[in-house]
What does this fold into?
Amino acid sequence: MRSVMRVAVWLFLVVEQVLTAQIPLSPDYHEESLDFYSHFERDPRQWDLDEPHAVNTTGNLVFETANSLLQHWANTRYRIGHTIVPGIVPVGTILYHGALSSPHIPTVPDWVAVEPEHSMIFCSGTAETGCWHATFAVTRPMKVLYFDGSSAAKIAGGTMDTQDLVAWSEMRPEWVGDEEQRIQDLCKWGLKNGVNGLVRFVLF
Ligand SMILES: *[C@@H]1O[C@H](CO)[C@@H](O)[C@H](O)[C@H]1NC(C)=O
It folds into this structure.
């Protein structure tokens, strides 16, 4: 699961940044908060929802991103991801892998799909060997990092940027197709940080 590992690295950096950006609350926090809301109550025009937001406002985008995670079209149309989300794949989840040329599970980092319709596309084999399609069940809560956007689309333009930053601390667009190196380096980071897998998305 290459994608999952990269996500793990990125998340760590983001968490670090968020933690360092924390500002201690002042002792007057509650009082200040109440003042803040009473200001809105005194001035109902603040709640005019027909009024367009300011041109450089970004808060709406943050909520839109959270609302779109793991959704098909939102992450296809806006395919350059920018969010890294930690998650747990629960016990009992069924995952699939195609492309096996013999009845053995992969012994190196590899991918699994959440839908058999996805993994079967990669199922190949000669008429003699047939195609092996493996089904796995998660037996321990699996810690993952999820990269939003079309993060499994190996195309130019930035879909891999967040993974690059986790793996290499810089964007390497010239390595967009180098999944082997990417998974190796994401796995290194993941092993150090207790991440079991990386989650990516691509439209099929
Ligand atoms: C929005 O951001 C741009 C780029 O930083 C800036 O030039 C512009 O003045 C901003 N507009 C407003 C209304 O703040």
Q: What stands out?
A: The two ends are 18 Å apart (CA to CA). The pocket of 2-acetamido-2-deoxy-beta-D-glucopyranose is lined by residues 55-56 (CB under 6 Å). The chain is about 35% helix and 15% strand.
